[in-house]
Write a structure and sequence with these properties.
Helices cover about 45% and strands about 30% of the residues. It has about 150 residues and is of the alpha/beta class. The protein has a single domain, classed as Ribonuclease H-like superfamily/Ribonuclease H (Nucleotidyltransferase, domain 5, 2-Layer Sandwich). The longest helix has 21 residues.
């Protein structure tokens, strides 16, 4: 299994509002950058979309170190997911899980990989996180331009 390092970020202009996501993938000496947009989204949906898109961009199973500045994504994966699945995709308070479609998609995208999740403080000078943020903002700009 090869090793990949991924940085992801999502952003919105307003929440909800036009959204963008970005990802930086490093696989050996290769670097690939991805970004996308949504005309009306939330920050959490863009954060999840960035992670899903990055994992799906890997051509084969990999050992992945994935950096996110989203506590929502990190806590969802590392703390809440097992309980949600056990409870039929309901929270501890018996409410439906928000962004269920993306969480289920993420579970499938994670399946072929061995992932170590890492939190990185956003806007704190980490080059991978800063670039993922720039890419997410490109996505917002594209969403805004498409709306004109």
């Amino acid at each position: 299994m090869g090793e990949a390092v991924i940085y992801t970020d999502g952003a919105c202009s307003g929440n909800p509002g036009p959204g963008g996501w970005g990802a930086v993938l490093r696989y050996g000496s290769a670097v690939r950058e991805l970004h996308g947009s949504d005309p009306l989204s939330t920050n959490n949906r863009m954060e999840l979309t960035a992670v899903i898109s990055a994992l799906e961009a890997l051509n084969r199973p990999a050992t992945v170190t994935l950096y996110t500045d989203s506590r929502y994504v990190l806590d969802g994966i590392t703390k809440w997911l097992p309980g949600w699945q056990r409870n039929g995709w309901r929270t501890a308070g018996r409410q439906p899980v928000k962004n269920l479609d993306l969480w289920q998609h993420l579970v499938k995208a994670m399946a072929p990989h061995e992932i170590t999740w890492r939190w990185v403080k956003g806007h704190n000078g980490d080059p991978g996180n800063e670039r993922a943020d720039e890419l997410a903002r490109e996505g917002i700009a594209e969403a805004l331009a498409a709306a004109r």
